[in-house]
UniProtKB/TrEMBL annotation:
It is an enzyme of class 3 (hydrolase). GO terms for molecular function: methenyltetrahydrofolate cyclohydrolase activity; methylenetetrahydrofolate dehydrogenase (NADP+) activity. It comes from the Eukaryota. Residues 542-684 form the Tetrahydrofolate dehydrogenase/cyclohydrolase NAD(P)-binding domain. This is methenyltetrahydrofolate cyclohydrolase.
């Protein structure tokens, strides 16, 4: 076969199909970490099929340099560019090479993608030997191991961790001498790449070698597979300065898209691709011990071995798993590969990967994140439904507020700050009146737990009360400094009272353990929690408000997104995490004891800040193109204003960072969400009343488990599953929205929100 000649100096990928270069094409200068071979099949096919030309880019390759010097080579080329040059400078190498290189000399480069997930590094011994039996048992003790110079440090660190200094003898050996050294018995095992050298050994010997992945020698409790412990085998990186430049994004994305489209085509017809690779590959990259195997068959086998590394478990080609990346960096640090200082994960983290789903902030416009406008819409919906339920019940929906201690002073300070009273969480009587809900307020002495318990039970059994919430004053850290017990008593009192509630239908604040447990149950079932309802339980108002904003921004599906939640409280942080998991996001929950918070927030696509610490996150803790949702606020002691956990700034806009307004964001929706929940609770009672249950009545029993509601008796519930099915047919044929379950004491509930159409006959 005719082999196309490629020079050994900087080279342009060979022009195919008679295409000519154009001054309109953006040049991509790409540093290789190995000779042209099957591991670059995506680039070769992209060029062969004209994908780069169509994408407006032209690719030139820098031949491989000494392993580990790739970042320095790219930075030198970038520094030597002409002032008017618009070329992008990229390179590739293994993650276990890139991270130590950055750590050692603080190279200002950043990874943007990965062409090979996982690492094919392994130890190999000839089948049938004692050394092979040792490897098969997952051990290396007592072996003489040949290793290439560029892998000596990595293997040495792993072996020291596994067996100590005296357990293994390492012998440096060049790639071309591995087979002979192993065959002659000079060494017992040798470091190989399973995607290439294992094929060579099998071709020469007729049987595959026995192998042990490098990852099997790494720390065991990493949560990663042995293939992924040491990270990606081929990471694409570029100068950090250039990655931060806005004009780099379009050509970078164009190059990545064309490259991974090339990989898709390469994997569709591996025989054709093998033929192309053979015609372009460097003779230096070809093995000398193929036996009866042809070069084309060899390249074909390599492509088949590469496929699971290119597209593992159905994942998008080129997509970096942030969690795996971070954990692999930590493993490299643990085994001593990153000396001097811990690597900044941002320096070696994903900057821009085209094949991740569209940016999480794509729909997060200022209009979509306007909490006040959304709250008004929600209030109108709630008011209309409230009117319908009032007709059926013969009374207005009612909320009972049970306050533990006097919250008047704080409410007075906060009421009316930047939001009208009829929308304010701190003016619930007026806000309730605006949507047709009566509000009753009761105050209990802060430490009178017996009275609190009694009032909670009475409210739970009172048929005229549709919903209630528990409130306590916000105790500042200064007030409780040195008095941990006061904080714990107050907190325990509320949790104990909340835990005594058996009817989650009245818990419109999502305070019960049952409500939080139900949220996580839905998350584990991948059942999307909406801002309206999650089965029989209500979504906590703050969480519902946040979800309403995400809905308006078109972010119902968060598949592939990394969300970092700052705060783990029972009412906010924990249920927020559950709701995001239910939307298929990958969620990390942080808190006051989380070390290196910025290492996590800098990786996130979405940051939810619910800690209540003014200015908790500073600009340098948030990366480009991130959506930041302000949930926590702090009342400024110096003046009548609320301060968010993350301040907004013009520099954030320039970096594509979107921060929800505060005030005017999530907070504006909390009150609307609360009264939405109240009217939903009333609607559940009205639905039973309207459908044959009679006027809702409840009898107080001897305990929480004995309380009976909605006209039921212990022996004869008002509704059974057959009657429920009839209601489905009567109200919404073909849609199984209604459910009755013993878990909720026979209460009727919707798996969606009640709407006015459910009461058209009222």
């Amino acid at each position: 076969m005719l082999r196309r000649s490629i020079s050994t100096s900087m080279m342009r990928l060979p022009l195919i199909r008679g295409m000519s270069t154009s001054s309109n094409l953006t040049k991509i200068i790409f540093q290789l970490d190995y000779h042209i071979s099957s591991q670059f099949a995506g680039l070769l096919v992209a060029q062969e099929e004209g994908l780069y030309h169509a994408a407006g880019v032209e690719v030139e390759l820098i031949p491989p340099v000494t392993p580990g010097q790739e970042p320095k080579s790219v930075l030198n080329a970038y520094a030597g560019r002409s002032p008017d040059e618009d070329a992008l400078y990229l390179g590739c190498c293994e993650q276990n090479v890139l991270v130590p290189a950055i750590t050692a000399d603080r190279s200002p480069v950043v990874a943007v993608s990965t062409m090979l997930h996982g690492s094919p590094l392994a130890l190999a011994s000839l089948s049938g030997t004692a050394a092979a039996e040792t490897l098969a048992q997952g051990s290396v003790y007592g072996l003489r191991i040949g290793v290439q110079p560029d892998c000596t440090q990595l293997l040495g660190q792993l072996l020291e961790l596994e067996v100590g200094d005296a357990g293994v003898t390492m012998v440096e050996i060049e790639r071309g001498g591995k087979f002979d050294a192993l065959s002659s018995g000079t060494i017992d095992a040798v470091q190989i790449y399973t995607t290439t050298e294992a094929i060579e050994f099998e071709a020469a010997l007729g049987v595959p070698p026995v192998t042990l992945p490098f990852g099997a020698l790494a720390p065991k409790d990493t949560g990663l597979s042995v293939e992924n412990v040491l990270g990606s085998a081929q990471v694409v990186f570029m100068p950090r300065e250039q990655a931060a430049c806005e004009k780099s994004k379009a050509p970078l994305d164009a190059f990545l898209k064309a490259t991974y489209d090339g990989w898709q085509l390469a994997l569709k017809d591996t025989r054709k691709t093998a033929n192309l690779v053979q015609s372009l590959s460097n003779p230096e990259a070809l093995p000398t011990t193929l036996g009866q195997m042809t070069e084309e068959d060899y390249h074909h086998r390599v492509l088949l071995e590469l496929q699971p590394f290119i597209q593992p478990h159905g994942a998008d080609i080129g997509r970096v798993s942030v969690q795996e990346w971070v954990r692999s960096c930590q493993v490299l640090e643990e085994i001593g590969m990153c000396r001097g200082r811990r690597p900044s994960l941002w320096q070696t983290a994903l900057s821009s990967t085209l094949l991740l789903p569209s940016s999480p902030i794509a729909g997060a416009t200022s209009e979509a994140l306007d909490g006040r406008a959304s709250a008004k819409e929600w209030q109108q919906e709630t008011f209309e439904l409230s009117q319908k339920t009032a007709v059926v019940l013969g009374r207005r929906p009612k909320l009972k507020i049970i306050r533990l201690g006097d919250t008047t002073a704080e409410a007075t300070k906060r009421a009316g700050l930047f939001i009208p009273d009829d929308m304010s969480w701190f003016s619930k009587v007026k806000a309730g009146a605006a949507v047709g809900v009566d509000v009753e307020e009761v105050t209990v002495a802060e430490h009178d737990l017996e009275a609190l318990h009694s009032i909670v039970l009475d409210a739970d059994c009172d048929p005229s009360v549709d919903a209630f919430i528990l409130e306590r004053p916000t105790v500042t850290e200064d007030a409780l400094e040195g008095d941990h017990s006061a904080r714990q008593v107050t907190k325990s009192a509320i949790l104990e009272a909340a835990a005594s509630l058996s009817s989650v239908g009245k818990d419109v604040d999502g305070a019960t353990d049952a409500a939080l447990g139900h949220a996580w149950s839905l998350a584990s079932q991948r059942t999307g929690v909406t801002s309206n309802r999650m089965g029989a339980a209500h979504v906590a108002p703050t969480v519902a408000g946040m979800l309403r904003l995400l809905d308006r921004a078109g972010l119902q599906d968060l598949t592939g997104k990394l969300a970092v939640v700052v705060g783990r409280s029972h009412l906010v942080g924990s249920p927020i995490a559950a709701s995001l998991v239910a939307r298929d996001a990958t969620v990390i929950v942080t808190h006051s004891r989380t070390a290196s918070l910025s290492d996590l927030t800098l990786q996130a696509d979405i940051v939810i800040v619910a800690a209540g610490g003014a200015g908790l996150l500073t600009p340098e803790m948030i990366s480009r193109d991130t959506l930041v949702v302000n949930v926590g606020t702090t009342l400024d002691s110096q003046g009548p204003c609320l301060r968010p956990d993350v301040e907004q700034g013009d520099d954030q806009k320039e970096q594509g960072i979107v921060v929800t307004p505060s005030p005017g964001g999530v907070g504006s929706l909390c009150c609307a969400a609360l009264f939405h929940n109240v009217v939903q609770a009333a609607a559940a009672t009205a639905a039973l009343t309207h459908n044959g249950g009679g006027r809702a009545s409840q009898q107080k029993g001897s305990g929480a488990g004995d309380r009976i509601r909605d006209g039921c008796t212990a022996d004869e519930p008002t509704l059974d599953l057959a009657q429920t099915a009839e209601l489905v047919d009567a109200y919404e044929p073909g849609l199984a929205d209604w459910s009755v379950g013993e878990l909720y004491d026979g209460c009727l509930s919707l798996n969606r929100s009640f709407t006015c159409r459910d009461f058209q006959a009222a």
